[in-house]
Amino acid sequence: MHNAGFEFSVKVIPTDEIFPVDMLVEEVPSFLARNKAACFSGSLTNEIILCADTVVIVENEIINKPADIDDARRMLRLLSNKVHRVITGVCIMTIEETITLADTTYVTFKPLSEWEIEYYIQKCHPFDKAGSYGVQDFIGMIGITKIEGSFYTVMGLPIHRVYEQLEKYMIR
């Protein structure tokens, strides 16, 4: 955000990342971002709240953050040699308006070796990442062969889309 010209501070209110089981996978990240923003609505004054949530979708199934090492291995094996979608939902809330958007990026992984998966899990500890990987980490550097869409969507914030929405609030 700083590099895009915005001053900001981070506030966290722990929020359950629960969504209806019959919800379309494409709608989940925006739903979760909106729920996170709603936690701030009661104390909103003259500020802008920005919340985001990212999901990794492979074979039309959301793969969340891994529960443990075995789950991380399973996820990385599932992503190996496939194309998957990363969707980041964003909710921007002011006292006057609430805007929700989503951005999708397609990511292609090469076939990952067991050594690469083990090395990544041991060195990068991907337990707080959807799909068990960070695009900016080792596995992204050596394993991703193609990205169709925004790199920043995969990182967790489609800054180009956020900038479009926040530009009207910028002081020039």
Characterization of this structure:
The structure is a single chain. This protein has 172 residues and is of the alpha+beta class. The protein has 6 helices and 5 strands. It has helices at residues 28-38, 69-79, 114-124, 138-143, 151-155, 159-166, and strands at 49-58, 61-63, 83-93, 98-109, 144-148. It has a 5-stranded antiparallel beta sheet with strand order 2-1-3-4-5, sandwiched between helices. Helix 2 packs across helix 3.
Question: Could you list some keywords that capture this structure?
Answer:
172 residues, 30% helix
How would the blueprint of this fold be written?
Layout: H1 28-38, E1 49-58, E2 61-63, H2 69-79, E3 83-93, E4 98-109, H3 114-124, H4 138-143, E5 144-148, H5 151-155, H6 159-166
Antiparallel strand pairs: 1-2, 1-3, 3-4, 4-5
Ends apart, CA distance between termini: 16 Å
Can you tell me the residue ranges where pLDDT is under 50 for at least 5 consecutive residues? none
Helix-strand sequence:
HEEHEEHHEHH
Q: Globular, elongated, flat, extended or rod-shaped: what is the shape?
A: globular
In total, the number of strands is 5
Q: Give helix % range.
A: 25-40%
Total DSSP helices? 6
